[in-house]
Automatic annotation (TrEMBL):
<comment type="similarity">
    <text>Belongs to the sigma-70 factor family. ECF subfamily.</text>
</comment>
<dbReference type="InterPro" id="IPR013325">
    <property type="entry name" value="RNA_pol_sigma_r2"/>
</dbReference>
<dbReference type="InterPro" id="IPR036388">
    <property type="entry name" value="WH-like_DNA-bd_sf"/>
</dbReference>
<dbReference type="InterPro" id="IPR039425">
    <property type="entry name" value="RNA_pol_sigma-70-like"/>
</dbReference>
<dbReference type="InterPro" id="IPR011517">
    <property type="entry name" value="RNA_pol_sigma70_ECF-like"/>
</dbReference>
<dbReference type="Pfam" id="PF07638">
    <property type="entry name" value="Sigma70_ECF"/>
</dbReference>
<dbReference type="GO" id="GO:0006352">
    <property type="term" value="P:DNA-templated transcription initiation"/>
</dbReference>
<keyword id="KW-0731">Sigma factor</keyword>
<protein>
    <submittedName>
        <fullName>Sigma-70 family RNA polymerase sigma factor</fullName>
    </submittedName>
</protein>
<dbReference type="GO" id="GO:0016987">
    <property type="term" value="F:sigma factor activity"/>
</dbReference>
<dbReference type="InterPro" id="IPR053812">
    <property type="entry name" value="HTH_Sigma70_ECF-like"/>
</dbReference>
<feature type="domain" description="RNA polymerase sigma-70 ECF-like HTH">
    <location>
        <begin position="12"/>
        <end position="189"/>
    </location>
</feature>
<dbReference type="InterPro" id="IPR013324">
    <property type="entry name" value="RNA_pol_sigma_r3/r4-like"/>
</dbReference>
<dbReference type="InterPro" id="IPR014284">
    <property type="entry name" value="RNA_pol_sigma-70_dom"/>
</dbReference>
<keyword id="KW-0804">Transcription</keyword>
<keyword id="KW-0805">Transcription regulation</keyword>
Length: 199
């Protein structure tokens, strides 16, 4: 039997998502406390993944909030979908931060970073992140779904099950798309550009 506290919390979250989707101005402010710890978990993963970008967890969460607040409406159906959208906002902020950091500092020594099975020689973390973002922009033209799966798995650190729930996809599709998206990014960064089937 499900705890009534969690049922009430889920209903409140759902009601606030509906209100936010309708453009109610204070809905996002009421929504954030319900997911704040989840957002901190996502941001903490990002901060750990890019330690040389001098990001802090609270700053990443707050910047994602500001980015969402500027949109005024959001089409999120549930907690997992909302978190996936927040992870996109975090990615955008981190990429912007990396661009600024790269603009501030040029010419670092080339280092080799390992992203799962992606070995990419780059100038540093800011460059690495910008290259990944550029690869994802190229992939978005061919398959936006692969980009969403990559964002959930790589940037948000969601598990396969969480990604499945956030995007409303079957588990096998998430697994296949994650493998294809990683291969695309790796190939793009190594100069090869496969042409995935459109989704």
């Amino acid at each position: 039997m499900r705890d009534p506290f969690f049922e009430t919390m889920d209903q409140s979250l759902h009601d606030l998502l509906v209100a936010y989707r309708k453009g109610e101005p204070d809905a996002l402010g009421k929504l954030m406390p319900l997911v704040y710890e989840d957002l901190r978990r996502l941001a903490r993963r990002q901060v750990r993944q890019w330690p040389n970008l001098t990001l802090d967890t609270t700053g990443v969460v707050h910047e994602a909030y500001l980015k969402l607040a500027r949109q005024h409406t959001l089409d999120a159906s549930d907690r997992a979908h909302f978190l996936a959208i927040c992870s996109q906002a975090m990615r955008q902020f981190i990429v912007d931060h990396a661009r600024q950091k790269r603009a501030d500092k040029r010419g670092a020594n080339v280092v080799l970073h390992n992203i799962e099975d992606l070995d990419i020689p780059v100038q540093g973390e800011a460059d690495e992140l910008l290259l990944i973002d550029q690869a994802l922009r190229g992939l978005a033209d061919a398959s936006p779904r692969l980009v969403r799966v990559f964002e959930c798995r790589f940037f948000a650190g969601l598990s396969e099950a969480e990604t499945m729930e956030a995007l409303g996809l079957p588990l096998r599709t998430v697994q296949r798309d994650w493998m294809r998206a990683r291969a695309w990014v790796k190939d793009m960064l190594s100069g090869q550009q496969p042409l995935p089937a459109r989704h």
